[in-house]
Amino acid sequence: MQSISVQSAQGQYDIHVGDALLQGVGAGVVKKIPKARVAMLVVDHAVEQTWAREVAASLAAAGLRLVTHVVVASEDNKSIAQVEKVWRCMLAERVQRSDVLCAMGGGIVGDMAAFAASTYMRGIATVMIPTTLLAMVDAAIGGKSAVNLPMASDAPDASVNSGGAKNSPQSLPTNLTNNVNNNLTKNVNNNLSNNLAKNMAGTICAPAWVVSDVRTLSTLSTREFRCGLAECVKHALLADEPMLSWLEKHREGLRAMDPARLVELVHRSASVKAAIVSRDEQEHGERAHLNLGHTFAHAIESLLHDQVHHGEAVSIGLVAMAAASQAAGWWPDADKFQLSKRLADLGLPIKVPTVVDRTQLKNAMKLDKKGQSGAIRLVLLKGLGRPGVLDAASEHVIHAGLDAIGA
Ligand SMILES: NC(=O)c1ccc[n+]([C@@H]2O[C@H](COP(=O)([O-])OP(=O)(O)OC[C@H]3O[C@@H](n4cnc5c(N)ncnc54)[C@H](O)[C@@H]3O)[C@@H](O)[C@H]2O)c1
């Protein structure tokens, strides 16, 4: 097992990375959060019948009363409506401030569940159990939680989409597996709200523990695994060339899901993020660098989230970032670095899959919370391992980025 220590205002916490960690979750929770009596397990539907069983058994064996709440992972479900379901569930089950919420799944379930935990009774302890590569190397680290909001033009729909009677406390089953409700809500949301303002409501609240068991990646689709690789590339660009070379050199071992390689990948990549958030938890400066390529990515995701997954948007966003960095004069020889080719070799997309209205895209970029007073703010590179923030990107720079991705 590999261990990474993260510093936060609420104290230090560990990230454990290994290939047989799930059975130890219960014992670890009891040790780290000794006053907890109830473990609220908010779990991604994709792992409910598989990996979550090991965690549930281990929590119960450690003497904790287990409450399980299942969530369908979709950006539409990364919503206040779903958070409210978790809150109501905890209230109905008399979850106390001293108890613990274990968020198990990909970044969507992790972000939404961590938001619910950080706001319920002004915050209860959270243990993150990421089950996607992207969540292991990125989303589960650093304490950021979030939900999406409907774009302003969709706002009237949001009131319809609150789920009404479906979400009422009376209709909540007390043993709390809400698959049916979640599926219904997902369908309703798909119909009503296509454009989402990503991560517009959230908190920064450090978890008590992060447990990354790479065995869980064996059930992940190739597409989702590649999404995680996009964030690994981002971390490599923020770190140094050796990390990118390592990624390229071990491509085959990673594709074959060699556990030792996976542990090394997660450990290396998570260490980059852990170091940054330890130095700047509240994003006063350096943490913003983790948004490399993300202003483009979030805008793409906002408009095309039914076609493009987060990691894919990040990959496309990194291509736009490299072109924008060159156009801004920050990274004059960016094209020689051939980032597009390197991403494509990892199986990642480098262009938008469909025609997008540029004005809409730029409006979504302006809405990205990293921008100040209507200007578009970009995190760009001055070279490998040399990120910086361009506060008000010119039209020339933005269009160079959009041209590069066929937008
Ligand atoms: N909080 C942060 O700092 C942070 C950082 C990066 C990304 N994010 C957020 O993370 C989200 C993306 O996360 P993601 O890429 O993990 O996507 P995701 O949560 O949508 O998971 C991808 C898919 O894999 C399924 N899945 C999860 N684990 C599985 C497993 N072990 N086996 C089989 N299927 C599995 C899920 O059900 C889902 O269908 C975005 O909403 C993004 O905004 C947050």
Descriptive labels:
407 residues, alpha/beta, 2 domains, seven-stranded mixed β-sheet, two-stranded antiparallel sheet, 18 helices, 46% helix
Polypeptide structure, described:
The chain is α/β, with parallel strands linked by helices and 407 residues long. The protein folds into 2 domains: 2-219, Rossmann fold, CATH 3.40.50; 230-404, Up-down Bundle (Dehydroquinate synthase-like, alpha domain). 46% of the residues lie in helices and 16% in strands. The chain contains 18 helices and 11 strands. The chain has helices at residues 25-32, 45-48, 51-61, 80-92, 107-119, 133-139, 155-160, 179-192, 222-238, 241-249, 251-255, 259-279, 294-304, 310-327, 334-337, 339-345, 358-367, 395-404, and strands at 2-6, 13-18, 38-44, 65-71, 100-105, 125-130, 144-150, 196-204, 209-213, 378-381, 387-390. A 7-stranded mixed sheet has the order 1-2-9-6-5-3-4, sandwiched between helices. A two-stranded antiparallel ribbon has the order 7-8. Strand 5 (100-105), helix 5 (107-119) and strand 6 form a beta-alpha-beta unit. Helix 6 packs parallel to helix 12 and helix 9 crosses helix 12 (259-279). The longest helix has 21 residues, at 259-279. The protein is globular. The N and C termini lie far apart (43 Å). The relative contact order is 0.12.
